[in-house]
């Protein structure tokens, strides 16, 4: 049975941690997001604690820090991700202990985040920075997913609407994902993106060429969009796209495949869809992104970046390679 994400149209809140006041902003964003996701009881306050602790660590220890807050793309709950270009953590095990501090504070930080979060992931590289993902889900939620997923979806600076969108759906033994980039910016681009999401949700388990044809029909009365659809199996992935959505396969610490969509505009002029199939080694990940993320990231990326798990990889690409004058979306998928 196909199950599209319930968080399909949710954008990512981006909070730049450049002053102590940003700690409160991050906490408030996490609380609001948890409330929108329907987390019960004290869980919205717990989400605020997670964001506050991660932001506070960046204020104390890091530079160029950002906290991303959004509904989890799979299942229910809120996902909070922190990325910085600080000095990194030299003794990670020690830093994870409650009460440890290098600044004279209470030192609850990372230990508290790990204890409160339903899922917790951290990677650090001395001299380069630290990435942390904390997910908070309601008790008795869905079982652990077979595929790891990460995403970031950001409007261009100064825009209230985002013309980009992404979603995923469990489709049998595979996970199928969509990234869409409505032409231009603003409300009209956002409507094109929403139309694509609605069409995708009707039957995300169809062959990829049929999905793309359905998207084309649904966008005929909009300004059009670029779209990329990926279906990830344990041992291979299929990709079919039109326009500027790029797909990159990462395997064994290197870029294994790069794929671009066929020329055209979904809703206006689309060539006959031609899905491409590529093998996936164990642990391989696939990245889809709109042109709001600079494609140069895949030309000579550091090994540290290539080995990040999906939530951290999506945040790292948005943090390091985003074009702020354009809507930007990253979707990452990895077989568990």
TrEMBL record:
<keyword id="KW-0808">Transferase</keyword>
<feature type="domain" description="PPM-type phosphatase">
    <location>
        <begin position="146"/>
        <end position="335"/>
    </location>
</feature>
<dbReference type="InterPro" id="IPR003594">
    <property type="entry name" value="HATPase_dom"/>
</dbReference>
<dbReference type="InterPro" id="IPR001932">
    <property type="entry name" value="PPM-type_phosphatase-like_dom"/>
</dbReference>
<dbReference type="InterPro" id="IPR036890">
    <property type="entry name" value="HATPase_C_sf"/>
</dbReference>
<keyword id="KW-0418">Kinase</keyword>
<dbReference type="InterPro" id="IPR036457">
    <property type="entry name" value="PPM-type-like_dom_sf"/>
</dbReference>
<dbReference type="InterPro" id="IPR039248">
    <property type="entry name" value="Ptase_RsbX"/>
</dbReference>
<dbReference type="GO" id="GO:0016301">
    <property type="term" value="F:kinase activity"/>
</dbReference>
<dbReference type="Pfam" id="PF07228">
    <property type="entry name" value="SpoIIE"/>
</dbReference>
<dbReference type="Pfam" id="PF02518">
    <property type="entry name" value="HATPase_c"/>
</dbReference>
<protein>
    <submittedName>
        <fullName>Anti-sigma regulatory factor (Ser/Thr protein kinase)</fullName>
    </submittedName>
</protein>
